Amino acid sequence: VQLVESGGGLVQPGGSLSLSCVASGFTFSRQDMSWIRKAPGRELEWVSIISGDGSLTSYRDSVKGRFTVSRDNAKNTLYLQLNSLETDDTAVYYCYAQAQRGQGTQVTVS
Asked: Does the chain have fewer CB atoms within 10 Å around its N or its C terminus?
């Protein structure tokens, strides 16, 4: 399993970012995929999940209406659109599947 995230950066409050995760080593289209994040001084927390076919999604309450998860199974790629970013969204974001995560991508809202 290999998961490679990208797209993080520094953005002002209220701004937007688009994260991507390219997956390999497993049958992507059959795998539910999650985004998780780790902020300084806080526990690792789950952010969102999407079913293998993309028909079902779920979000933690604090990001509902602001973040959107999607996937392109033809490209083995998972996405997370982050809108209306808040300082509390500052964290390293990871995609997660089969009990593994990538190296993460830093999102800083300041």
From this structure: C
Q: How far apart are CA 59 and CA 55, in angstroms?
A: 14
Residue 78: pLDDT band with limits 50, 70, 90: very high
Residue 46 pLDDT grade (very low, low, confident, very high; cuts 50, 70, 90):
very high
Amino acid symbol at 10: L
Closest CA to 89 of 12, 31, 20, 22: 12
Contact 78, 5 (CB under 8 A): no
In this structure, the strands spanning 2-6 and 17-24 are: antiparallel
Tokens of 78: 């998972």
* Spatial separation of the C-alpha atoms in residues 69 and 59, rounded to whole Å: 9
81-to-17, 25, 35, 69 alpha-carbon distances in Å? 6, 24, 11, 6
Q: How far is the C-alpha of 109 from the C-alpha of 106, rounded, in Å?
A: 10
